[in-house]
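User: For my dataset I need records formatted as: sequence, then structure tokens, nothing else. Please produce one.
Assistant:
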Amino acid sequence: MSLNKKIQKFTQKFDVNYFGISDLSLAKDFIIGQGGNILSDFRYCISIGLKLPDAIVNQLPLRSNKAVAVNYRFHAYKIINDRLDYNTSMISSFIQKLGYNVMPISASERCDDERNCAVFSHKLGAHLSGLGWIGKSCLLITPDSGPRVRWASILTDAPLQPTGKPMNEKCGDCLDCVNICPIKAFTGRNYYPNESREMRYNAQLCNDYFVAMTKKGQLPVCGMCLYVCPCGKKKS
């Protein structure tokens, strides 16, 4: 059995909805620029994704209702992220036992408050593996679930085979996520690998919006770009 199949078979124990492997050399400069040289020894990324409950995402326009906000924060954020982190820990241990180095990346922890980013982009890893494209919302858009997926990643030096190649964007002229954003954080530009995130998205505006909500005693919940994307809605 190939190494890819061994890892995928083990991963199936955790009932993940998405699994992909990417070659990080395709975006090495960007990855090191975001996470630093601690990532330079890992050529491959294993991406896993869990689909969010549609019934919860569909209620996001009513997020001023505390019950809706609590349900989203718990079942579409905290629990999903905890499941992803547990899964990546178990998969990492399995790969390490096979004799390879691994670095599991937390599903949600931020390492750079100034740039509002994590040590590694889960969306980029999933995109490079062929699981979807990066949309105007800067979210990973899958063909069947849209952006209604949370991701986690495992970096490794194991000699794996990529499961796919980067998918071309399919947003076209759609601006639904841009228009619905309550703070106008998106510029409406399509994703281009050589452009900075700032060309498409002002992460600080999102952060400030959540801080303001918290100061008002509200739960920091938005997710309107998740809710409105037609690629996710069509399967709801």
